[in-house]
Amino acid sequence: MAILYTKPNEDNLSFFNDREELRAVVVKMRAKNNSESDITSNPNEAVLITDTGEPLDSKVIFVNEISRDYLGKVKKGGYGSWFIKS
Question: What would you report as the CA-atom Rg of the chain, rounded to the nearest whole angstrom?
Fold first, then answer.
């Protein structure tokens, strides 16, 4: 897990709701399906609760394989990101 501090450029400012400075929690994740059954999971779309109780909705900015279908016994990895509002 890391805290990311960034300033969007003109090309992607609207994607970040015209915020000139951003802070985000970025989490590296790994998931494993131990069963033979197929499952669907989206861990990078979860709501993150901060230590102060603030709920943060995810913002998918990293395209990765951690979400969606786990067909049988597979392992996947990727990143999730949550922008800090205050």
Answer: 15
